[in-house]
């Protein structure tokens, strides 16, 4: 998401004239427009934004050869691809009294929410890889299928991860995780709430506990009113 955000911010800055090294993105070759609209305006320079984001964020990662850096490089690229694959066309109407007899259109980068939703979908189906899957020539050659098959899946647009998240439901001393057994949960909370029984019980179910509490009280009469005092 950071890589995508840098690309979007720089692309918009180019079209706004904030950055002197770049300007509006050129209209794609062969893009003739339509019968009642034409390419005009100042398109966001996504090409320069992607190039800047790659240079700015990938330098430190590209100097290392460990699996973490290589997965980060791949995921940075996926973030930038989420920008270019969700580019939008925005138009402005021209004509008497807003009749929109003719429209001029330009390419604009997607908003952050659109990119976030696209990456969230990829996050939900991210692919686990290990050092043996990486290879040395290209991260796109990961073999995500069992060894008995010869088919290779193109992972160029998938998010990758190399280490499973810890299971916070169970106690793990090495990671200083106390687990969730024995904790109180809120039975009326929505499932996504952190204190809901669905989240804390991790599918194990939960017990309803009823307690009877007995307290002693003393009633005092003061200036025409009753005061109830707890003697506990």
UniProtKB/TrEMBL annotation:
GO cellular component, one term: extracellular space
One Pfam family per UniProt: wnt
Keywords linked to the UniProt accession: Developmental protein, Disulfide bond, Extracellular matrix, Lipoprotein, Secreted, Wnt signaling pathway
PROSITE patterns membership: WNT1
Record keyword Ribosomal protein present: no
GO MF assignments: cytokine activity; frizzled binding
Localization in the cell: Secreted, Extracellular space, Extracellular matrix
Main location: secreted
GO biological process: canonical Wnt signaling pathway; cell fate commitment; neuron differentiation
Gene3D superfamilies named among the record's database cross-references: 3.30.2460.20
PANTHER family according to UniProt: PROTEIN WNT (PTHR12027:SF98), WNT RELATED (PTHR12027)
Protein family membership: Belongs to the Wnt family.
Function comment: Ligand for members of the frizzled family of seven transmembrane receptors.
Protein name: Protein Wnt
Species of the source: Acanthoscelides obtectus
């Amino acid at each position: 998401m950071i890589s995508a955000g840098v690309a979007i911010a720089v692309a918009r800055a180019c079209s706004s004239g904030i950055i002197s090294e770049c300007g509006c993105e050129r209209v794609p070759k062969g893009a003739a427009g339509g019968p009642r609209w034409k390419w005009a305006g100042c398109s966001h320079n996504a090409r320069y934004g992607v190039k800047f984001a790659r240079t700015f964020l990938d330098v430190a990662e590209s100097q290392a050869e460990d699996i973490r850096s290589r997965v980060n490089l791949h995921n940075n690229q996926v973030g930038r691809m989420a920008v270019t694959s969700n580019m939008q066309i925005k138009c402005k109407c021209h004509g008497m009294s807003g009749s929109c007899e003719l429209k001029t259109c330009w390419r604009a980068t997607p908003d952050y929410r659109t990119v976030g939703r696209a990456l969230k979908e990829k996050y939900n189906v991210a692919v686990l890889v290990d050092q043996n899957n990486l290879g040395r020539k290209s991260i796109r050659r990961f073999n995500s299928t069992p060894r008995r098959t010869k088919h290779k899946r193109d992972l160029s647009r998938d998010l990758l991860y190399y280490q499973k998240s810890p299971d916070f439901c169970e106690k793990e001393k090495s990671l200083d995780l106390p687990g969730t057994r024995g904790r109180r949960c809120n039975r009326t909370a929505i499932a996504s709430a952190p204190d809901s029984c669905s989240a804390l019980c991790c599918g194990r179910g939960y017990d309803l506990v009823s307690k009877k509490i007995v307290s002693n009280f003393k009633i005092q009469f003061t200036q025409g009113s009753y005061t109830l005092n707890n003697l506990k």
